[in-house]
Design a protein that fits this description.
The protein is of the alpha+beta class and 153 residues long. Helices cover 16% and strands 43% of the residues. The protein is built from two helices and ten strands; from the N terminus they run H-H-E-E-E-E-E-E-E-E-E-E. Strands 1, 2, 3, 4, 5, 6, 7, 8, 9 and 10 form a ten-stranded antiparallel sheet that branches. A hairpin with a 2-residue loop joins strand 7 (116-120) and strand 8 (123-128). The longest helix has 16 residues, at 2-17.
Length: 153
């Protein structure tokens, strides 16, 4: 159970860590990155990729973010492969992201989708189906660059 919990937390780390390669290692955060902080989340939940477009419906909380390409990262310490799609969608309200689509992690020979993220004190709780994993929010203060891009969207 502990290894499964760690895996799903690693999946969340993918969500925070994915990004496009950028020659500037510390680019300025986009408006989409800054918007995360308005809902109580760290900037690092969104990849450091070039954000082409984003929309948040202030009434329903529905959002989408288009980044300049799908990317992959390897999550430490267990080396799980994670991917971000070019389009990330979901529903955001203060302290909670639900109906999340566009971030997946490979573990146990299967791809798993991160379906939600909650802010809980100094921690973030990641949801993968019915399983949750908790990580310190400070782990998501920065977004590491992607290792490369992949063809799926």
């Amino acid at each position: 159970m502990a290894k499964t919990t760690f895996f799903f937390l690693s999946l969340l780390l993918l969500f925070v860590s994915g990004s496009s390669q950028n020659p500037n290692p510390n680019p300025s955060p986009s408006a989409a990155h800054t918007e995360l902080t308005n809902y109580g989340f760290p900037l690092g939940l969104l990849p450091a990729a070039n954000v082409l477009n984003y929309t948040i419906d202030q009434t329903s909380g529905d959002f989408f973010v288009d980044i300049d390409g799908a990317c992959k990262i390897t999550l430490p310490p267990d080396n799980y492969l994670a991917t971000y799609s070019k389009k990330i969608t979901g529903k955001i309200v203060q302290g909670k992201i639900a109906q999340l689509d566009g971030i997946r992690v490979r573990a146990f020979f299967k791809w798993w989708s991160i379906t939600g993220i909650r802010s809980s004190g100094d921690n973030l709780v990641f949801e993968v189906g019915g399983i949750t994993a908790k990580y310190p929010s400070k782990n998501f203060d920065e977004s590491p660059p992607c290792e490369g891009k992949h063809s799926s969207s």
